[in-house]
Amino acid sequence: KKGIVATDGWEKSGGISAVELAKKLGAFGLETIIYTDISRDGTLSGVNVTETAHLARASGIKVIASGGVKSISDIEELKKRECDGIIGVIVGKSIYEGTLSLTEAIAASR
């Protein structure tokens, strides 16, 4: 929440920023993380491209984006930031709700 890692079903603060945790995990050899913007998860309000790219750049860890994805434009915006280290996206609710087709999502990610 607001850049701080949340635990226990997103109910408790982990007391560490997402960037700081990613850097620590990277020091142990972790190469990729899933970053869920929990303020947007399940809302179809649009993915937080700026914060996701910041996390990838600042930590040096590859990031799979999650939370808020609504449409093909979200995937296109994330794809533009591939150079920052964004390597994927989770698109659960948008496919379930029909705001995004899996075929379109795959095509946009290539």
Q: Helix and strand succession?
A: EEHEHEHEHH
Intertermini distance: 31 Å
Report the major sheet: 3 strands, parallel
Structural class by SSE content: alpha/beta
Secondary structure tally, helices: 5
Strand order of the largest sheet: 3-4-5
Number of strands: 5
Provide key terms for this protein:
two-stranded antiparallel sheet, alpha/beta, Rossmann fold, globular, 5 helices, single chain, 40% helix
Brief description of this entry?
By secondary structure, this protein is α/β, with parallel strands linked by helices.
Description:
It contains five helices and five strands, in the order ββαβαβαβαα. By secondary structure, the protein is α/β, with parallel strands linked by helices. The chain has a single domain (31-109), classed as 3-Layer(aba) Sandwich (Rossmann fold), CATH 3.40.50. α1 (18-27) runs parallel beside α2 (49-59) and α3 (72-80) runs parallel beside α5 (102-109). It is globular, with a radius of gyration of 14 Å. The termini are far apart.
How are the SSEs placed, and which strands pair?
Blueprint: E1 4-7, E2 12-17, H1 18-27, E3 32-36, H2 49-59, E4 62-66, H3 72-80, E5 86-89, H4 92-97, H5 102-109
Parallel strand pairs: 3-4, 4-5
Antiparallel strand pairs: 1-2
Helix pairs in contact: 1-2, 3-5
